[in-house]
Amino acid sequence: MRPRLTLAACALATIATGLASRRYPSAQPAFVATYAGDALWAASVFWLFAFVRPRAGTARLAAAALLASVLVELSQLYHAPWLDTLRATRAGALVLGQGFLWTDLLCYAAGVALAAVADRWLVPR
Protein backbone atom coordinates (compact mmCIF):
# COMPACT_ATOMS: atom_id res chain seq x y z
CA MET A 1 0.00 0.00 0.00
CA ARG A 2 1.27 3.44 -0.89
CA PRO A 3 1.44 5.98 1.95
CA ARG A 4 -1.24 8.60 1.34
CA LEU A 5 0.98 11.36 2.72
CA THR A 6 3.59 10.57 0.07
CA LEU A 7 0.92 10.51 -2.64
CA ALA A 8 -0.46 13.85 -1.49
CA ALA A 9 3.05 15.31 -1.56
CA CYS A 10 3.60 13.96 -5.09
CA ALA A 11 0.27 15.40 -6.25
CA LEU A 12 0.94 18.81 -4.70
CA ALA A 13 4.49 18.96 -6.06
CA THR A 14 3.27 17.99 -9.52
CA ILE A 15 0.46 20.57 -9.46
CA ALA A 16 2.81 23.30 -8.22
CA THR A 17 5.36 22.47 -10.91
CA GLY A 18 2.64 22.46 -13.57
CA LEU A 19 1.29 25.82 -12.46
CA ALA A 20 4.81 27.26 -12.39
CA SER A 21 5.42 25.97 -15.92
CA ARG A 22 2.42 28.01 -17.10
CA ARG A 23 3.17 31.06 -14.97
CA TYR A 24 6.84 31.42 -15.96
CA PRO A 25 7.11 30.26 -19.58
CA SER A 26 10.04 32.55 -20.36
CA ALA A 27 12.17 30.82 -17.70
CA GLN A 28 12.08 27.54 -19.66
CA PRO A 29 12.97 26.27 -23.10
CA ALA A 30 10.06 26.83 -25.52
CA PHE A 31 9.37 23.10 -25.85
CA VAL A 32 9.07 22.69 -22.09
CA ALA A 33 6.94 25.82 -21.71
CA THR A 34 4.58 24.57 -24.42
CA TYR A 35 4.11 20.97 -23.32
CA ALA A 36 5.13 20.49 -19.67
CA GLY A 37 1.90 21.82 -18.20
CA ASP A 38 -0.21 19.26 -20.04
CA ALA A 39 2.08 16.38 -19.13
CA LEU A 40 2.12 17.45 -15.49
CA TRP A 41 -1.67 17.84 -15.50
CA ALA A 42 -2.06 14.18 -16.46
CA ALA A 43 0.61 13.15 -13.94
CA SER A 44 -1.38 14.92 -11.23
CA VAL A 45 -4.46 12.92 -12.26
CA PHE A 46 -2.39 9.76 -11.73
CA TRP A 47 -1.35 10.92 -8.23
CA LEU A 48 -4.91 11.88 -7.30
CA PHE A 49 -6.22 8.48 -8.42
CA ALA A 50 -3.41 6.79 -6.46
CA PHE A 51 -4.39 8.83 -3.39
CA VAL A 52 -7.98 7.62 -3.69
CA ARG A 53 -6.95 4.01 -4.39
CA PRO A 54 -3.53 3.51 -2.74
CA ARG A 55 -3.69 -0.28 -3.11
CA ALA A 56 -4.36 -0.22 -6.87
CA GLY A 57 -1.69 -1.47 -9.23
CA THR A 58 0.44 1.04 -11.09
CA ALA A 59 -0.75 -0.14 -14.50
CA ARG A 60 -4.39 0.17 -13.47
CA LEU A 61 -3.83 3.68 -12.12
CA ALA A 62 -1.98 4.67 -15.27
CA ALA A 63 -4.78 3.35 -17.49
CA ALA A 64 -7.43 5.17 -15.44
CA ALA A 65 -5.45 8.44 -15.42
CA LEU A 66 -4.83 8.28 -19.16
CA LEU A 67 -8.48 7.48 -19.86
CA ALA A 68 -9.67 10.36 -17.66
CA SER A 69 -7.20 12.73 -19.32
CA VAL A 70 -8.27 11.71 -22.82
CA LEU A 71 -11.95 12.06 -21.90
CA VAL A 72 -11.36 15.57 -20.56
CA GLU A 73 -9.53 16.47 -23.77
CA LEU A 74 -12.30 15.02 -25.93
CA SER A 75 -14.88 16.93 -23.87
CA GLN A 76 -13.31 20.10 -25.26
CA LEU A 77 -14.90 19.25 -28.61
CA TYR A 78 -18.33 19.76 -27.00
CA HIS A 79 -19.43 23.36 -26.56
CA ALA A 80 -22.52 23.82 -24.42
CA PRO A 81 -22.95 27.39 -23.15
CA TRP A 82 -22.83 26.34 -19.48
CA LEU A 83 -19.68 24.31 -20.09
CA ASP A 84 -17.97 27.12 -21.99
CA THR A 85 -18.88 29.48 -19.14
CA LEU A 86 -17.26 27.07 -16.69
CA ARG A 87 -14.16 26.74 -18.90
CA ALA A 88 -13.89 30.56 -19.00
CA THR A 89 -13.09 30.60 -15.27
CA ARG A 90 -9.52 30.08 -14.06
CA ALA A 91 -10.38 26.88 -12.19
CA GLY A 92 -12.48 25.57 -15.08
CA ALA A 93 -9.70 26.22 -17.58
CA LEU A 94 -7.15 24.47 -15.34
CA VAL A 95 -9.30 21.40 -14.81
CA LEU A 96 -11.21 21.12 -18.10
CA GLY A 97 -8.94 22.95 -20.55
CA GLN A 98 -10.04 25.38 -23.19
CA GLY A 99 -9.60 23.86 -26.62
CA PHE A 100 -8.90 20.46 -28.12
CA LEU A 101 -5.33 19.79 -29.30
CA TRP A 102 -4.05 16.45 -30.59
CA THR A 103 -0.65 17.19 -29.08
CA ASP A 104 -2.21 17.26 -25.62
CA LEU A 105 -2.97 13.55 -25.94
CA LEU A 106 0.73 12.84 -26.42
CA CYS A 107 1.58 15.04 -23.45
CA TYR A 108 -0.93 13.18 -21.31
CA ALA A 109 0.60 9.83 -22.25
CA ALA A 110 4.07 11.12 -21.40
CA GLY A 111 2.92 12.61 -18.10
CA VAL A 112 1.11 9.46 -16.99
CA ALA A 113 4.10 7.34 -18.01
CA LEU A 114 6.44 9.57 -16.03
CA ALA A 115 4.19 9.39 -12.94
CA ALA A 116 3.90 5.60 -13.30
CA VAL A 117 7.68 5.23 -13.44
CA ALA A 118 8.06 7.51 -10.42
CA ASP A 119 5.40 5.51 -8.59
CA ARG A 120 7.18 2.21 -9.24
CA TRP A 121 10.67 3.44 -8.38
CA LEU A 122 10.24 6.24 -5.85
CA VAL A 123 7.05 5.73 -3.84
CA PRO A 124 7.61 3.39 -0.88
CA ARG A 125 5.28 0.48 -0.30
Structural account:
The structure is a single chain. This protein is an all-alpha fold and 125 residues long. The protein has helices spanning 4-23, 30-52, 58-75, 81-87, 90-96, 102-122. The chain has 6 helices and no strands. Helix 2 (30-52) crosses helix 3 (58-75) and helix 3 (58-75) packs antiparallel against helix 6. It is globular, with a radius of gyration of 15 Å. The model has no long low-confidence stretch (mean pLDDT 96).
Compile the SSE list and pairings.
Blueprint: H1 4-23, H2 30-52, H3 58-75, H4 81-87, H5 90-96, H6 102-122
Helix pairs in contact: 1-2, 2-3, 2-6, 3-6
Descriptive tags:
125 residues, mainly alpha, 6 helices, globular
